[in-house]
């Protein structure tokens, strides 16, 4: 029997925090032994991943709280706020790494014990790959913005770890400190790019951005497919946490009775609800214009 999306979301937050703790310890040891700035960059990235995972942990639990008298539309916007905070953490880590790289370029140091860095990188890649795979499944089942933002963190961490492992090994093998610094610079730029994407998506939710265009087209097509619907207008959509909000007007024959017009509206609403389970739907029935 499939696990409920809410339970999957909670489990994903625990898994991300646990993974981050293991990776922080491993990368801290590797950085101290190798004195690699690119390993330091990966350590900083994972440390901030832990902080953002904690933010996700609390945001997901808040977003799943049912609607109450003071929050009639639920608490789903907590996910958007969490995503925005996560974007700030990612951007801050990228900027901090750029500062560390600039300092290291002024005082280049050769990487030591590069084999240790490579082993830790392999461990980190394995754990992160398992976590990201699970998070993708959870996002597919729930559509959670906060879990998706957390997955973006660990996806960047996965790429950063792969690049870091190669950079540390090659820097030590070829006796070229600039390789280590160059790899760290690429990781920093990648983090800033990830921060931009996560922040933009979170702002879209907080600003009540419309659902994807294909969803709007699907809703309108469902409404128009009913034989009693003459026209559709004023379609408005948005999302908040796991809930999609859909509002639209349909036009029916002006000579129909109120009872029949209402019945058509209920049928259209039921069809939309089947296509978008759990959505909050507000449908208005209007008489068609006079000829």
C-alpha end-to-end distance: 55 Å
Query: β content, as a range?
Result: 5-15%
Approximate shape: elongated
Spatial order of the strands in the main sheet? Answer: 1-2-3
Overall strand count: 3
Mean pLDDT: 79
User: Number of helical segments?
Assistant: 8
The rounded Rg comes to 25 Å
Q: Which structural class do you get from the secondary structure elements?
A: mainly alpha
Main sheet makeup:
3 strands, mixed
Report helical residue fraction. over 70%
pLDDT < 50 stretches: none
Note the run of SSEs as H and E: HHHHHHHEEHE
Can you give keywords for this protein?
291 residues, mainly alpha, three-stranded mixed sheet, 8 helices, elongated
Any chance you could write out the topology, listing elements then pairs?
Blueprint: H1 5-34, H2 37-63, H3 77-106, H4 114-142, H5 145-174, H6 177-206, H7 213-225, E1 231-240, E2 243-252, H8 258-275, E3 280-287
Parallel strand pairs: 2-3
Antiparallel strand pairs: 1-2
Helix pairs in contact: 1-2, 1-4, 1-5, 2-3, 2-5, 2-6, 3-5, 3-6, 4-5, 5-6
Please provide a written account of the structure.
- Helix content is 71%, strand content 10%.
- It is mainly α.
- The model has no long low-confidence stretch (mean pLDDT 79).
- It has helices at 5-34, 37-63, 77-106, 114-142, 145-174, 177-206, 213-225, 258-275; strands at 231-240, 243-252, 280-287.
- Helix 1 (5-34) packs parallel to helix 5 (145-174) and helix 2 (37-63) runs parallel beside helix 6 (177-206).
- The radius of gyration is 25 Å and the shape is elongated.
- It has a three-stranded mixed beta sheet.
